[in-house]
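Blinded run. Sample ID left blank on purpose so nobody reads anything into the name before looking at the predicted structure. Input follows.
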Amino acid sequence: MANRVVVITGASAGIGAAVARELDRRGDRLVLAARTTDALQRVAAEIAAPAASERRESRAHVVTADVTRRAEVERIRDEAIGAFGRVDVWINNAGRGILRPVLELTDEDVDEMIAVNVKSALYGMQAIVPHFIERGRGHIINVSSFLGRVPIATPRSAYNAAKAALNSLTANLRVDLQRSHPGIHVSVVMPGLVATDFAKHARGSTGPMPPAPVGSPMKPQSAEDVATIIADLIDTPVAEVYTNPASPALAARYFEDVARFEAEAQART
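Blinded prediction complete.
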């Protein structure tokens, strides 16, 4: 169903920008939020160009905001409703990685990982759910990571932990709402390896994402691959989605025998 109003945080690049482009092609109206105005405007311009060539109205509204601040997340909601009259889908996509093993983590490392990857999504959920309850329907999508389910990349330590917390919060909210508001869907998306600049901008980054280990069953996806999966999820809501075809089998093996899985993963690196 097109013509939905979709809020996307972290929409200035990577998966968020790809989702914006895909949903625009499907006819949705978009609220694009991130901290960087120039980058957001570039994404909005990318969306506006094909709209102009097809002689249709551009459907992107830009909101510059820091989603680690509750008041700014609430402002995103208010601007979305002010611009389009409602919100149908809220995608908590903003996030940041880290490259630091557990024993080297500082308080600042952990605080930032929780603020960006957990609290921002919590603020989004708490801001929009009352609106969804009032309307009797809506869809929250939290973009997590395969590493929140299977923490195999140990230098991403606090990121893995934050995404695991996000998975848990998402599941708890879903169960709570299903009891009393079955028209509200709550989903978590867990990408695996994605070829974006995410790794380059991680806290403590040493450069772009390294290639997958030789023999690894998980091959990198593009942001556009992930965006298509997220867009399909909006059309057909489910509780959880792994975007990488290798992820479900890897997760099953991990939980079947954690020690063996970790030993095999170590042997490949």
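Unblinding after everyone has recorded impressions. The mean pLDDT is 92.
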